[in-house]
Amino acid sequence: xxxxxxxxxxxxxxxxxxxxxxxxxxxxxxxxxxxxxxxxxxxxxxxxxxxxxxxxxxxxxxxxxxxxxxxxxxxxxxxxxxxxxxxxxxxxxxxxxxxxxxxxxxxxxxxxxxxxxxxxxxxxxxxxxxxxxxxxxxxxxxxxxxxxxxxxxxxxxxxxxxxxxxxxxxxxxxxxxxxxxxxxxxxxxxxxxxxxxxxxxxxxxxxxxxxxxxxxxxxxxxxxxxxxxxxxxxxxxxxxxxxxxxxxxxxxxxxxxxxxxxxxxxxxxxxxxxxxxxxxxxxxxxxxxxxxxxxxxxxxxxxxxxxxxxxxxxxxxxxxxxxxxxxxxxxxxxxxxxxxxxxxxxxxxxxxxxxxxxxxxxxxxxxxxxxxxxxxxxxxxxxxxxxxxxxxxxxxxxxxxxxxxxxxxxxxxxxxxxx
Length: 419
Prior knowledge:
This protein is α/β, with parallel strands linked by helices. The protein contains 13 helices and 12 strands. The chain has helices spanning 25-29, 31-47, 97-106, 136-152, 163-169, 178-198, 228-234, 239-243, 266-271, 273-284, 318-327, 401-404, 409-418; strands spanning 80-81, 86-90, 122-125, 156-159, 251-254, 257-260, 333-336, 347-349, 354-356, 371-376, 380-385, 389-391. The strands form 2 sheets. A 6-stranded mixed β-sheet has the order 1-5-6-7-9-8. β3, α4 (136-152) and β4 (156-159) form a beta-alpha-beta unit. The longest helix has 21 residues, at 178-198. The radius of gyration is 24 Å and the shape is globular.
């Protein structure tokens, strides 16, 4: 058969990206999968954990964050929860990943592979994950992962907002460390590159740049360059604040136990605990301006007050505490952090109507040995540490902290006053 003398017809030219209204089939079919994969990849690079997306297990409707970052399931925060058989309270962590892990192991809820083994135990961390340490994001990611694993087992891990979360959302970075600035810059680098990966497909829309000044992402000139990534991540509506901190309660009641970072005053109870949680959540999501509600500021703020946590019990206002507990139906005790309780560790005051759990464990706060509070059957309280198990009535160790260690004393004393 003779060969044709005419040349073969050329193959149709493949349109370059952006020249055709029809996107590649893979982009039509897989934008959600691609987006989820990229988010998971960035999570692991930044936080050392595989998170993915979690189906919310609390009632509510799916809402998108005003930042448009795609972490959009934000339901009403449960403020009142029923009693549980075993409840653990952990104090301020301040960016110290190793002490966070040690606390969780002392509580018997995490194994050496960072997996949840606490069964139906509920853990409450009373806030202040941020500042003074250099692994804040890794702490946040670890607790988020464990919380998801716990809920699948019938337990829970609840992180609360402390005064340092509020400060950082508002752009007050006085206590941010150099190493933490590097951690947030690392996060920003990979977050931006993750968005660029998503933009390969037309089905995944372009995101505003975090730091370049696009639209709502503009960062004030007053923010130093080394803190711009931190500001972008944590401001109201920011990716980290929206995804993680907006889900954290500011006040919480589990059975007979009330939790707050600083403490709840009668005026707070009258205002409404559920109302406070909802207003703080809306603010963190970027719907209420740059600064948080008034009850987050000042010496009587729910995250700042020290009326119940002065180390010398005679300085505690037990009468106000009693009125606050009376205003919260069914409550018997309050758990607070915020004020370092050295040299005594976890201890009670006002006839154990308040338990103070901030032991100053972070290396940025003196580096005390971690302790956690255990409450069984809503009644029996004891303090757990590596070296002992003691009833809360025996809340003063035989040797003060400063006699067990000969370093860090000056730092510890100063932290107690300014924290």
